[in-house]
Design goal:
The structure is a single chain. With 249 residues, this protein is an all-alpha fold. It contains 10 helices and no strands. The longest helix has 30 residues. The protein is globular and about 55 Å long.
Length: 249
């Protein structure tokens, strides 16, 4: 398959991920606007039912990931995440030139997805919903966020290695299992780091918020969501390659 066509598939796939996942976060914040918070740890998500809110967000992202994998996975592999592309490149499972093209496409797709959601949802999606952007939660240090993103993305990449990259995996289940992994991790760490696991997922809302609202997130918090997911994904790729003897199959 031509790199251009595969890159377009990555652009569209990441656009859908951000539109559905970040859109769900933004809608949840708009629904909860004005609701008294139970604890200082609550910035809006949680006001409608505590952990149930994060369950909804996690499921939304999980469904989006599964939909993209089952629809576009045969075209591009459905990385839809720069950390995944870089991790596969690091263990020589993906060419360098393709990795660069995929990352550019993923970031553009994420920005388009965020812009489209702002267009259909209106200004409150940015002013109240923050376009579903990720940021450290109150009382959480940058280092805690970084470790949370490393662990979360390690789990995600380990799942990808086991059910999608390893040729011994049972076919047909990758989308479902990877989607469930995304949902589970977001439910666990969402109220700590926002549960990004994906530099493009954070880049899209941050870029549009910078253009439309003067946000400084691209230079203040975005670097955390670049370093954490990439470190976690690369560690998982090398770990799985070592323990599963990936070069032997």
């Amino acid at each position: 398959m031509e790199l251009v066509k595969r890159s377009i598939a990555e652009l569209v796939g990441t656009m859908l991920l951000v539109f559905i996942g970040c859109g769900a976060v933004s809608v949840l914040l708009m629904l909860a606007a004005g609701t008294p918070t139970a604890t200082p740890f609550d910035i809006g998500i949680g006001a409608l039912g505590g952990l149930g809110d994060w369950l909804a967000v996690g499921v939304a992202f999980g469904i989006a990931v599964a939909v993209v994998i089952y629809t576009l996975g045969r075209v591009s592999g459905a990385h839809i995440n720069p950390a995944v592309s870089i991790a596969l490149w690091s263990i020589k499972k993906f060419p360098a030139k393709d990795t660069v093209a995929y990352i550019i496409a993923q970031c553009i797709g994420a920005a388009i997805g965020s812009a489209l959601f702002l267009f259909i949802a209106g200004p409150d999606a940015l002013a109240i919903g923050g376009l579903g952007a990720t940021a450290p939660f109150p009382g959480i240090s940058i280092w805690q966020v970084l470790v949370a993103e490393i662990i979360g993305t390690f789990v995600l990449m380990l799942t990808i290695m086991g059910v999608a990259v390893d040729q011994r995996a049972t076919p047909g289940f990758a989308g479902l299992v990877i989607g469930m992994a995304v949902a589970g991790v977001i439910i666990a760490i969402g109220n700590i780091s926002g549960g990004s696991l994906n530099p493009a997922r954070t880049f899209g809302p941050d870029l549009i918020a910078t253009i439309m609202g003067g946000s400084t997130a691209l230079v203040t918090t975005f670097p955390i969501y670049v370093v954490g997911p990439i470190v976690g994904a690369v560690l998982a790729a090398f770990f799985y390659k070592y323990v599963a003897g990936l070069d032997n199959n």
